[in-house]
Amino acid sequence: MPELPEVETVVRELRPRLIGRTFTTLRVGSKPLRKRWTREWTRQLQNRRVLRIDRRGKWIIVVLSDGLRLLIHLGMTGQLTVVPADSPRLPHTHLVAHLNGEDAQLRFRDVRRFGSVTVFSDHAGLEEFFELSGLGPEPFEVENQYFSERIQGTRRCLKAVLLDQRVLAGVGNIYADESLFQARLHPAQLGQDTDSRQANRLRKAIVAVLNRAIEQRGSSIRDYIGASGQRGSYQEEFRVYQRTGDPCPRCRTPIRCTRLAGRSTHYCPSCQRLD
DNA sequence: ACAGGATCCTGGGGGC
DNA sequence: TGCCCCCAGGATCCTG
Predict the structure, then answer these.
(1) What is the pLDDT of residues A10-69, one digit of tens each?
(2) CA A51 to CA A65: how far, in whole Å?
(3) How many CB atoms lie within 10 A of CB A245?
(4) A259 forms bridges with which residues in the sheet?
(5) What is the pTM (predicted TM-score) of this model?
(6) Integer distance in angstroms from CA A249 to C1' B7?
(7) Nearest alpha carbon to residue A127 among A192, A67, A41
(8) Is the dihedral of CA A141, A167, A59, A81 positive or negative?
(9) Spatial distance between the Cα atoms of A235 and A76, rounded to a whole number of angstroms
(10) Is it the case that residue A133 has pLDDT exceeding 80?
Protein backbone atom coordinates (compact mmCIF):
# COMPACT_ATOMS: atom_id res chain seq x y z
CA MET A 1 0.00 0.00 0.00
CA PRO A 2 2.23 2.70 1.18
CA GLU A 3 4.73 4.04 -1.31
CA LEU A 4 7.56 6.51 -0.81
CA PRO A 5 5.41 9.55 0.17
CA GLU A 6 3.42 7.57 2.73
CA VAL A 7 6.56 6.00 4.21
CA GLU A 8 8.30 9.40 4.31
CA THR A 9 5.28 10.82 6.17
CA VAL A 10 5.37 8.00 8.71
CA VAL A 11 9.10 8.60 9.28
CA ARG A 12 8.65 12.36 9.73
CA GLU A 13 5.85 11.81 12.22
CA LEU A 14 7.74 9.10 14.10
CA ARG A 15 10.83 11.25 14.69
CA PRO A 16 9.44 13.67 17.30
CA ARG A 17 7.53 10.85 19.00
CA LEU A 18 10.29 8.27 19.16
CA ILE A 19 13.75 9.80 19.12
CA GLY A 20 15.39 9.79 22.54
CA ARG A 21 12.98 7.25 23.97
CA THR A 22 13.76 3.70 25.08
CA PHE A 23 11.92 0.48 24.25
CA THR A 24 10.97 -1.17 27.52
CA THR A 25 8.51 -4.07 27.18
CA LEU A 26 7.90 -5.72 23.78
CA ARG A 27 4.86 -7.76 22.86
CA VAL A 28 4.73 -9.79 19.66
CA GLY A 29 1.62 -11.34 18.07
CA SER A 30 1.37 -15.03 17.24
CA LYS A 31 0.77 -14.77 13.49
CA PRO A 32 3.88 -14.44 11.36
CA LEU A 33 4.67 -11.47 9.13
CA ARG A 34 6.88 -11.92 6.05
CA LYS A 35 9.81 -12.65 8.36
CA ARG A 36 9.13 -14.68 11.46
CA TRP A 37 9.97 -12.88 14.71
CA THR A 38 12.69 -14.34 16.93
CA ARG A 39 13.20 -14.24 20.71
CA GLU A 40 16.67 -12.93 20.04
CA TRP A 41 15.21 -9.77 18.47
CA THR A 42 13.04 -9.13 21.52
CA ARG A 43 16.10 -9.48 23.74
CA GLN A 44 18.17 -7.18 21.51
CA LEU A 45 15.56 -4.41 21.39
CA GLN A 46 14.93 -4.37 25.13
CA ASN A 47 16.23 -1.17 26.76
CA ARG A 48 17.65 0.20 23.50
CA ARG A 49 17.21 3.92 22.87
CA VAL A 50 16.04 5.39 19.56
CA LEU A 51 18.74 7.61 18.07
CA ARG A 52 17.53 8.29 14.54
CA ILE A 53 14.88 7.28 11.99
CA ASP A 54 15.70 7.03 8.29
CA ARG A 55 13.91 5.95 5.11
CA ARG A 56 15.25 3.99 2.11
CA GLY A 57 12.69 3.53 -0.64
CA LYS A 58 9.68 2.03 1.12
CA TRP A 59 11.76 0.84 4.09
CA ILE A 60 11.73 2.47 7.54
CA ILE A 61 14.97 2.24 9.51
CA VAL A 62 14.89 2.86 13.26
CA VAL A 63 18.49 3.35 14.44
CA LEU A 64 18.93 2.37 18.08
CA SER A 65 21.74 2.57 20.61
CA ASP A 66 24.65 0.12 20.17
CA GLY A 67 24.22 0.21 16.38
CA LEU A 68 21.04 -1.87 16.37
CA ARG A 69 18.68 -1.40 13.41
CA LEU A 70 14.95 -2.07 13.37
CA LEU A 71 13.85 -2.42 9.73
CA ILE A 72 10.17 -2.12 8.85
CA HIS A 73 8.24 -2.52 5.59
CA LEU A 74 4.53 -1.64 5.61
CA GLY A 75 3.60 -3.97 2.75
CA MET A 76 0.07 -3.21 1.55
CA THR A 77 -1.81 -2.55 4.78
CA GLY A 78 0.85 -1.81 7.41
CA GLN A 79 0.34 0.94 9.99
CA LEU A 80 3.08 2.14 12.33
CA THR A 81 1.78 4.48 15.01
CA VAL A 82 2.73 5.94 18.38
CA VAL A 83 -0.30 5.99 20.66
CA PRO A 84 -1.11 6.35 24.37
CA ALA A 85 -0.60 3.00 26.09
CA ASP A 86 -4.22 2.82 27.16
CA SER A 87 -5.74 3.33 23.68
CA PRO A 88 -7.68 0.25 22.50
CA ARG A 89 -5.55 -2.35 20.75
CA LEU A 90 -7.04 -2.88 17.31
CA PRO A 91 -7.23 -6.32 15.66
CA HIS A 92 -4.19 -7.31 13.53
CA THR A 93 -1.74 -5.54 15.85
CA HIS A 94 1.43 -7.64 15.55
CA LEU A 95 4.01 -5.69 17.54
CA VAL A 96 3.75 -3.38 20.55
CA ALA A 97 6.83 -1.69 21.98
CA HIS A 98 6.31 0.18 25.21
CA LEU A 99 8.25 3.44 25.50
CA ASN A 100 9.81 4.86 28.64
CA GLY A 101 8.68 8.21 30.00
CA GLU A 102 5.14 9.19 29.02
CA ASP A 103 2.85 6.20 28.81
CA ALA A 104 3.07 5.60 25.05
CA GLN A 105 3.54 2.65 22.70
CA LEU A 106 4.90 2.10 19.22
CA ARG A 107 2.48 -0.24 17.45
CA PHE A 108 2.67 -2.14 14.18
CA ARG A 109 -0.66 -3.20 12.70
CA ASP A 110 -1.03 -5.04 9.39
CA VAL A 111 -4.25 -6.69 8.23
CA ARG A 112 -2.84 -8.60 5.27
CA ARG A 113 0.54 -9.36 6.83
CA PHE A 114 2.53 -8.54 3.70
CA GLY A 115 4.63 -6.23 5.84
CA SER A 116 7.82 -7.15 7.64
CA VAL A 117 9.71 -6.22 10.79
CA THR A 118 13.35 -7.31 11.12
CA VAL A 119 16.26 -6.55 13.41
CA PHE A 120 19.89 -6.08 12.28
CA SER A 121 22.81 -5.96 14.71
CA ASP A 122 24.60 -3.18 12.91
CA HIS A 123 24.82 -0.80 9.96
CA ALA A 124 26.86 -3.24 7.87
CA GLY A 125 24.29 -6.01 8.24
CA LEU A 126 21.51 -3.76 7.03
CA GLU A 127 23.55 -2.41 4.11
CA GLU A 128 24.33 -5.97 3.08
CA PHE A 129 20.61 -6.71 3.03
CA PHE A 130 19.92 -3.73 0.75
CA GLU A 131 22.87 -4.71 -1.42
CA LEU A 132 21.61 -8.25 -1.78
CA SER A 133 18.12 -7.12 -2.74
CA GLY A 134 19.65 -4.77 -5.33
CA LEU A 135 17.67 -1.81 -3.97
CA GLY A 136 17.98 1.10 -6.39
CA PRO A 137 18.70 4.78 -5.67
CA GLU A 138 16.30 7.32 -4.20
CA PRO A 139 14.34 9.02 -7.02
CA PHE A 140 15.49 12.47 -5.87
CA GLU A 141 19.15 11.59 -6.24
CA VAL A 142 19.01 9.96 -9.65
CA GLU A 143 20.94 11.35 -12.60
CA ASN A 144 19.50 11.60 -16.09
CA GLN A 145 22.12 9.34 -17.59
CA TYR A 146 21.56 6.51 -15.10
CA PHE A 147 17.80 6.68 -15.55
CA SER A 148 17.94 6.77 -19.36
CA GLU A 149 20.29 3.82 -19.46
CA ARG A 150 18.16 1.73 -17.14
CA ILE A 151 15.03 2.47 -19.17
CA GLN A 152 16.58 2.03 -22.60
CA GLY A 153 18.30 -1.19 -21.59
CA THR A 154 15.12 -3.19 -21.14
CA ARG A 155 12.29 -4.58 -23.22
CA ARG A 156 9.85 -4.22 -20.36
CA CYS A 157 7.19 -1.54 -20.49
CA LEU A 158 7.64 1.72 -18.60
CA LYS A 159 5.07 0.76 -15.99
CA ALA A 160 7.00 -2.39 -15.11
CA VAL A 161 10.29 -0.48 -14.96
CA LEU A 162 8.88 2.10 -12.53
CA LEU A 163 7.57 -0.64 -10.23
CA ASP A 164 11.01 -2.32 -10.15
CA GLN A 165 12.64 -1.30 -6.86
CA ARG A 166 16.07 -2.12 -8.31
CA VAL A 167 15.74 0.73 -10.80
CA LEU A 168 14.29 3.31 -8.40
CA ALA A 169 13.44 2.79 -4.74
CA GLY A 170 10.02 3.90 -3.57
CA VAL A 171 7.67 4.19 -6.56
CA GLY A 172 4.58 1.96 -6.49
CA ASN A 173 1.36 1.61 -8.43
CA ILE A 174 -0.20 5.01 -7.63
CA TYR A 175 2.85 7.17 -8.28
CA ALA A 176 3.90 5.17 -11.35
CA ASP A 177 0.55 5.97 -13.02
CA GLU A 178 0.50 9.59 -11.87
CA SER A 179 4.10 10.18 -13.01
CA LEU A 180 3.55 8.62 -16.44
CA PHE A 181 0.52 10.85 -16.92
CA GLN A 182 2.46 13.95 -15.90
CA ALA A 183 5.26 12.99 -18.32
CA ARG A 184 2.69 12.21 -21.08
CA LEU A 185 4.12 8.75 -21.63
CA HIS A 186 2.10 5.62 -22.31
CA PRO A 187 2.58 3.03 -19.53
CA ALA A 188 2.86 0.24 -22.13
CA GLN A 189 5.67 1.98 -24.02
CA LEU A 190 8.75 -0.24 -24.06
CA GLY A 191 11.83 0.95 -22.24
CA GLN A 192 14.00 0.37 -25.31
CA ASP A 193 11.67 2.57 -27.40
CA THR A 194 12.14 5.52 -25.05
CA ASP A 195 14.51 8.35 -26.02
CA SER A 196 16.58 10.23 -23.45
CA ARG A 197 14.41 13.32 -23.73
CA GLN A 198 11.37 11.26 -22.69
CA ALA A 199 13.32 9.52 -19.93
CA ASN A 200 14.36 12.87 -18.54
CA ARG A 201 10.78 14.09 -18.63
CA LEU A 202 9.70 11.00 -16.73
CA ARG A 203 12.42 11.40 -14.11
CA LYS A 204 11.38 14.99 -13.49
CA ALA A 205 7.70 14.04 -13.32
CA ILE A 206 8.42 11.35 -10.71
CA VAL A 207 10.30 13.82 -8.51
CA ALA A 208 7.55 16.45 -8.82
CA VAL A 209 4.71 14.00 -8.13
CA LEU A 210 6.48 12.45 -5.13
CA ASN A 211 7.32 15.85 -3.64
CA ARG A 212 3.76 17.08 -4.02
CA ALA A 213 2.43 13.86 -2.48
CA ILE A 214 4.79 14.25 0.50
CA GLU A 215 3.47 17.80 0.98
CA GLN A 216 -0.02 16.30 1.19
CA ARG A 217 1.19 13.61 3.65
CA GLY A 218 0.66 10.82 1.10
CA SER A 219 -2.50 9.17 -0.19
CA SER A 220 -5.08 7.47 2.01
CA ILE A 221 -7.28 5.18 -0.06
CA ARG A 222 -8.37 2.87 2.71
CA ASP A 223 -5.81 1.60 5.22
CA TYR A 224 -3.01 4.10 5.14
CA ILE A 225 -2.49 6.43 8.12
CA GLY A 226 0.63 8.24 9.34
CA ALA A 227 2.42 7.64 12.63
CA SER A 228 0.09 10.16 14.29
CA GLY A 229 -3.00 8.37 12.96
CA GLN A 230 -3.75 11.17 10.53
CA ARG A 231 -4.75 10.41 6.93
CA GLY A 232 -3.02 11.79 3.85
CA SER A 233 -4.83 13.86 1.25
CA TYR A 234 -3.01 13.37 -2.06
CA GLN A 235 -5.80 11.02 -3.19
CA GLU A 236 -7.81 14.19 -3.79
CA GLU A 237 -5.27 15.19 -6.43
CA PHE A 238 -5.15 11.91 -8.36
CA ARG A 239 -5.39 12.71 -12.05
CA VAL A 240 -5.59 9.16 -13.42
CA TYR A 241 -5.23 6.64 -10.59
CA GLN A 242 -8.65 5.13 -9.79
CA ARG A 243 -10.29 7.64 -12.13
CA THR A 244 -11.36 5.22 -14.86
CA GLY A 245 -14.00 6.84 -17.11
CA ASP A 246 -13.50 10.31 -15.63
CA PRO A 247 -12.52 13.05 -18.09
CA CYS A 248 -8.77 13.60 -18.41
CA PRO A 249 -7.93 16.86 -16.59
CA ARG A 250 -5.96 17.99 -19.65
CA CYS A 251 -8.09 16.95 -22.65
CA ARG A 252 -11.38 15.56 -21.28
CA THR A 253 -10.88 12.14 -22.93
CA PRO A 254 -12.15 9.40 -20.56
CA ILE A 255 -9.36 7.85 -18.49
CA ARG A 256 -8.76 4.21 -19.35
CA CYS A 257 -7.76 1.30 -17.13
CA THR A 258 -5.78 -1.73 -18.28
CA ARG A 259 -3.58 -4.40 -16.74
CA LEU A 260 0.23 -4.16 -16.98
CA ALA A 261 2.93 -5.95 -15.02
CA GLY A 262 0.08 -7.61 -13.12
CA ARG A 263 -1.25 -4.30 -11.81
CA SER A 264 -4.19 -2.09 -12.74
CA THR A 265 -2.86 0.79 -14.80
CA HIS A 266 -4.62 4.10 -15.43
CA TYR A 267 -3.83 6.49 -18.27
CA CYS A 268 -5.26 8.96 -20.78
CA PRO A 269 -5.32 7.30 -24.24
CA SER A 270 -5.13 10.71 -25.89
CA CYS A 271 -2.40 12.49 -23.87
CA GLN A 272 -0.29 9.36 -23.41
CA ARG A 273 0.25 8.05 -26.93
CA LEU A 274 1.92 4.79 -27.81
CA ASP A 275 4.21 5.47 -30.77
C1' DA B 1 18.94 -13.22 -18.55
C1' DC B 2 14.54 -11.69 -18.73
C1' DA B 3 9.55 -11.10 -18.47
C1' DG B 4 5.20 -12.49 -16.88
C1' DG B 5 2.42 -15.00 -13.67
C1' DA B 6 1.26 -17.14 -9.24
C1' DT B 7 1.61 -16.65 -4.38
C1' DC B 8 1.40 -14.95 0.36
C1' DC B 9 -3.18 -12.76 3.41
C1' DT B 10 -7.61 -10.40 4.87
C1' DG B 11 -11.57 -7.56 4.05
C1' DG B 12 -14.68 -4.86 1.28
C1' DG B 13 -17.62 -4.19 -2.61
C1' DG B 14 -20.43 -5.64 -6.56
C1' DG B 15 -23.37 -8.95 -8.87
C1' DC B 16 -26.73 -12.48 -8.60
C1' DT C 1 -29.52 -11.36 3.54
C1' DG C 2 -26.08 -14.60 1.74
C1' DC C 3 -22.69 -16.30 -1.25
C1' DC C 4 -19.15 -16.03 -4.60
C1' DC C 5 -15.91 -13.71 -7.19
C1' DC C 6 -12.85 -9.97 -7.88
C1' DC C 7 -10.06 -6.39 -6.29
C1' DA C 8 -6.52 -3.90 -3.36
C1' DG C 9 -0.99 0.88 -2.09
C1' DG C 10 4.03 -5.00 -2.41
C1' DA C 11 7.77 -8.30 -2.78
C1' DT C 12 9.38 -12.83 -3.99
C1' DC C 13 9.60 -17.20 -6.06
C1' DC C 14 8.75 -20.10 -10.14
C1' DT C 15 8.29 -21.02 -15.00
C1' DG C 16 8.87 -20.72 -19.91
Answers:
(1) 999 999 999 999 999 999 999 999 989 999 999 999 999 999 999 999 999 999 999 999
(2) 6
(3) 8
(4) A264
(5) 0.97
(6) 37
(7) A67
(8) positive
(9) 16
(10) yes
Q: How far apart are CA A136 and CA A178, in angstroms?
A: 20
Secondary-structure percent of chain A, ordered helix, strand, coil, rounded to 5: 35, 25, 45
Report the alpha-carbon angle A111-A115-A121, nearest 5: 140
d(CA A116, CA A71): 8
Footprint of strand B on the protein (CB under 7 A): A 31, 91-92, 111-114, 154-157, 160, 191, 222, 261-262
Burial group, residue A269, by CB count within 10 angstroms (0-12, 13-18, 19+):
middle
* Residue-wise burial string across A19-54, b where 16 or more C-beta atoms lie within 10 A, e elsewhere: eebbbeebebbeeebeeebeeebbebbeebbbeebe
Using the CA of A176, which nucleotide's C1' is the nearest one?
A: C9
Choose among A95, A89, A72, A77: nearest CA to A14: A72
Q: Is A55 among the catalytic positions?
A: no
Q: Is the dihedral of CA A84, A85, A89, A93 positive or negative?
A: positive
Amino acid at A80: L
Give pLDDT tens digits for A99-124. Answer: 998 899 999 999 999 999 999 999 99
